[in-house]
Design brief:
Helix content: 40-55%
Radius of gyration: 39 Å
Shape: elongated
Strand order of the largest sheet: 1-2-3-4-5-6-7-8
Number of helices: 30
Strand content: 5-15%
Length: 942
């Protein structure tokens, strides 16, 4: 144990060291001056000033903070609380550039214009008015009502007609351009029309104030419409390299280049870079990468360059604006202060993450906490502890990343709900992944199985000396419309058992057709008095009801009950090898694995057989170490006393065998498992039968969860903590994983149009990467454990993986039905070749969902072609991964009905291929020599 503790401490120390090693530090020029101007919005859009005193105090608090950083602020509106800013700014000696928001609402525009004019007249610290913000760029056509010099009068009718005539002429001229230039010409004409309208508004404001008046526009609008510059007192150009797909390394050079371009294009005009900034969070836009380090280095480099060349500028913006969620993922994050008015970065010294070590501490502590359960393991090896601790610390790092994301992002109700739902669904996914990593560690690096009964296990012999009694075994074989010859094979195999003291009770239930039961009755008579035959009609309770009747006909001196399915051919040494385990009076049950003798019927049956083997050679072996095996009926031996104390066969679930096994364990009995094959049965006839069997197991399993969950509470049963953990994780790993996979896939499908067309709520990497990681863990888990424990070839293993994935929809549907129903009818698994293949396609809904997931991924990729947001590509990749289980079902359903399902096809193909490439001589049909006619034939011909 000391070695394990040392490993945990070592991994924890290594984890902390990695955080220290990867701490990012970047250099940038120091800035110790005061910024000339910052964009400022005291309230979110639509704010109404209801309490002037309270709102004024909020503005005062903000400006007190900002007065230490900047000489002036730029506003974008003159209403909705912005009118409070100039007088409060004067208290701190700050200048203000007021703004008038202009859009399509004529009444609001007039209110904005009048308010801006009044602010300029009443406050001496107002140094300019910006009429409209990117009005031309946004395509917001200024209403004609706002163009008159007197708002109440508006534009005279003849003036309106002239304006509209000129605008129509510009559009007409654009439409007559050559086809390759027409779209661009029309775009320019629309912008030019709006420029002329905006100029009239600027002129209207200029007549009313004595401060400079301009408008705020993207730099290229000023370049392409020089008359706008001629009508403005100065150029207020917006240069935002992020939105133009420049990297943070190129941003400053691009801004300086645009500044020089405007200075050269518009000589004699004062050039103000009215907006420059970089977002601290959000999604990449092609090469433009937002982030706290990028924001700090871009702004520090920019202000240094700007000061050096005498550039006038305004930084956008002072404080983060969480309400700007409509501006994609970056809208809220342009402030140099966060929404709590805290600095995001320092203007001097190395650029670092101010909260880095807080996040690192969370990661290390969570990793250490999740490593503590390793100390409860029974004699873990060093490598086992190392892998588990590394995985735990990986989860700790993810948890810290989630914590960082939560504390550095702003959420509206919808995004908070989406993130919370995503995290709630990820918690069981992470637990499942951790359980699978634990199983990998145990099998690959842990100590070998110690409770497993092997062929040469040191058990007490069935008899020692001539006078020792063999405990009597009563073997029960329930049957329902089973093929006669198949059931005869089962009975014949029982008759050959190398064990002197047993009986066999064969009960055929609810099978009125004498062609099914009379031959079996006759066969039991032929086999002798050990074989009892029961033909029970109108049996209630499915298979469990039949087994209860068999118990009534069981010999009074039978101590052990053996259960086998009607298709199983047992080996002669089954009882001889396993009954000795009951020499320990604490043992209540011994389970042997299932095996199948018809895996060579077709390729589909071949991969089915491989899929079954994984459960019996991996999961059952591991669960056996904790006395927590799942009883699966056939090939099972149960102490009669244990069965009686557990209440016998119950019909309130359709998995009566697993239900009884759990009840026996809850009563405190020991159970044992062997992975030695002591018999072979038959595989389901069709893929439909395979899915129906898995649906029954899943639905029955969920019934058992609902029936027994209270007995998992502390003190409610004799289950040990290890047993509780194994059963809980087992249910989560199977029922939960499959159901969760379908739920998340469907939720992601619903989310696709929101991401693709609304361009909001893009799933972050903290939600998508864990899905990819869990898929990788599942893949490694399957391949590694199959290679270590299951003796099958690689091709069969790959097929088994496809078969295992293919029942995800089936299992999730069973769980959903288990949530809303109490009982479903028992569905017999068709075996023995009696069932016919259904004409219906057996993976219809899987095909629909799989296709929708692929289409969704394609839509995301296509709509992301311009922005190339990395998170959207990852999201699309997740959809492709989530489609694989559904497509696996489609593949098997198609395989079942195709020629390639037959092994003969592959053999013939191999022969033909060998002949074509010359590795095998071509076999020609032999031609017999023509026979000589006999005398009688000659006579007849004549």
């Amino acid at each position: 144990m000391r070695a394990v503790v040392a490993v945990l401490l070592l991994v924890t120390a290594a984890h902390a060291a990695l955080w220290g090693l990867f701490q990012e530090k970047q250099s940038a020029p120091d800035f110790r001056g005061t910024l000339p101007s910052l964009s400022y919005a005291p309230f979110e859009s639509g704010h109404t000033v209801a309490d002037v005193a309270a709102d004024t105090e909020k503005v005062r608090t903000d400006l007190r903070k900002l007065s230490t950083l900047t000489k002036a602020v730029r506003l974008y509106s003159s209403t909705e609380g912005n009118e409070l800013v100039p007088p409060v700014a004067a208290e701190f000696g700050m200048k203000v550039t007021v703004g008038a928001w202009i859009d399509k609402d004529a009444n609001r525009n007039n209110r904005e214009i009048d308010a801006a004019i009044n602010l300029a007249k009443r406050n001496s610290n107002v140094i300019g008015i910006v009429v409209g913000n990117e009005t031309v760029f946004r395509g917001e056509q200024v209403p004609l009502e706002n163009l008159g010099s007197v708002p109440e009068v508006g534009v005279p009718p003849e003036e309106s007609e002239r304006i509209l005539r000129e605008e129509a002429q510009r559009l007409h001229d654009a439409e007559t351009q050559p086809e390759d230039k027409r779209a661009e010409a029309i775009k320019w004409a629309i912008a030019e029309n709006n420029v002329h309208r905006l100029i009239k508004v600027i002129q209207r404001v200029k007549k009313s104030v004595n401060v400079p008046v301009t408008t705020g526009e993207i730099w290229n609008i000023w370049r392409d419409h020089p008359q706008l510059a001629n009508s403005s007192d100065f150029i207020a150009a917006h240069v935002l390299p992020y939105w133009e797909n420049f990297t943070d390394k190129q941003a400053v050079d691009q801004a300086v280049d645009r500044y020089n371009l405007l200075r050269d294009s518009l000589p004699g005009k004062r050039i103000l870079i009215a907006e420059f900034g970089w977002p601290s969070q959000g999604y990449n836009l092609r090469s433009a990468e937002p982030g706290p380090f990028q924001q700090a280095t871009v702004l520090r480099n920019f202000v240094t360059r700007a000061e050096a060349i005498g550039m006038d500028y305004n930084i956008v913006e002072a404080i983060d604006q969480p309400w700007k969620f409509f501006e994609g993922g970056v809208g809220p994050y342009w402030g140099i202060l966060n929404a709590d008015r805290e600095a995001k970065f320092a203007w001097t010294g190395p650029v670092t993450d101010l909260n880095y070590w807080k996040i690192a501490m969370v990661a290390v502590l969570v990793g250490l906490f999740m490593s503590l359960p390793i100390l409860r393991l029974d004699q873990p090896t060093v490598m086992q502890a190392l892998l588990l601790s590394a995985a735990a610390n990986g989860v700790g790092a993810w948890a810290a990343t989630v914590f960082s994301y939560w504390t550095t992002h702003y959420f509206v109700w919808g995004s908070a709900f989406a993130l919370s739902l995503g995290l709630v669904l990820l918690v069981p996914l992470v637990l499942i992944a951790m359980a699978r990593i634990e199983e990998i560690a145990a099998v690959a690096f842990g100590r070998g199985p110690r409770r497993l009964i092997g062929k040469s296990a040191p058990l007490a012999p069935a008899t020692i000396g001539e006078n020792v009694k063999f405990p009597k075994v009563s073997i029960h074989i329930p049957a329902y419309f089973e093929p006669v010859e198949m059931l005869k094979q089962t009975l014949d195999a029982v008759s050959r058992l190398d064990y002197p003291n047993f009986e066999c009770v064969c009960i055929i239930n609810n099978t009125p057709d004498p062609e099914f039961w009379r031959p079996i009755q006759d066969h039991c008579r032929q086999l002798g008095e050990r074989f009892k035959f029961i033909n029970a009609e109108k049996v209630q309770g499915f298979k469990a009801g039949a087994l209860r009747i068999a118990m009534e006909r069981t010999a009074a001196d039978a101590e052990i009950i053996g259960i086998i399915d009607a298709d199983y051919v047992v080996h002669p040494d089954w009882l001889k090898d396993l009954v000795p385990a009951f020499a320990d009076p604490r043992v209540g049950l011994v389970q042997a694995p299932q095996e199948h003798r018809d895996g060579d019927r077709s390729l589909m049956h071949y991969i089915m057989n491989g899929e079954y083997a994984g459960f019996f050679d991996i999961g059952m072996v591991q669960r056996n170490e904790f006395n927590a095996i799942i009883v699966h009926g056939t090939m099972c031996l149960i102490r009669r006393a244990a069965m009686d104390k557990a209440g016998g066969w119950s019909s309130d679930t359709i998995c009566e065998d697993t239900d009884l096994g759990l009840s026996i364990q809850q009563a405190g009995w020991l159970t044992h498992y062997t992975n030695v094959r002591y018999g072979e049965g038959l595989l389901p006839d069709t893929y439909e039968a395979f899915k129906k069997q898995r649906h029954r197991w899943a639905y029955g399993g969920f019934q058992i969860v609902k029936k027994h969950w209270r007995r998992f509470l502390p003190g409610a049963s004799r289950l040990t903590p290890d047993q509780r953990r194994e059963f809980s994780l087992g249910w989560l790993n199977w029922l939960g994983a499959e159901s969760l996979g379908v739920v998340v896939a469907i939720l992601n499908l619903i989310w696709v149009p929101i991401v693709a067309f609304a361009d909001i709520a893009i799933p972050d990497k903290i939600l998508t990467l864990p899905i990819i990681a869990s898929f990788i863990v599942s893949l490694v888990h399957f391949v590694a454990l199959y290679r270590l424990r299951v003796n099958i070839k690689a091709g069969q293993m790959l097929g088994a993986m496809i078969a295992a994935m293919s029942v995800q929809w089936t299992v999730s549907r069973a769980v959903a039905q288990g949530l809303i129903t109490e009982h479903l009818a028992f569905a017999r698994t068709s075996k023995g070749g009696l069932s016919r293949m259904s004409i219906e396609f057996q993976a219809f809904w899987e095909a629909v969902i799989g296709a929708l997931l692929l289409i969704g991924a394609a839509v995301l990729v296509v709509t992301n072609g311009y922005k190339q947001v990395r998170e959207i590509y990852i999201f699309a990749g997740v959809l492709v991964l989530q489609s694989l289980p559904f497509l696996a079902a489609v593949a098997i359903a198609i395989l079942e009905n195709s020629r390639i399902n037959e092994f003969a096809f592959w053999r013939n193909s191999a022969i033909r291929t060998a002949e074509l490439i010359g590795l095998r001589p071509v076999s020609l049909p032999s031609v017999a020599a023509p026979s000589q006619p006999v005398g009688s034939e000659i006579g007849r011909d004549n």
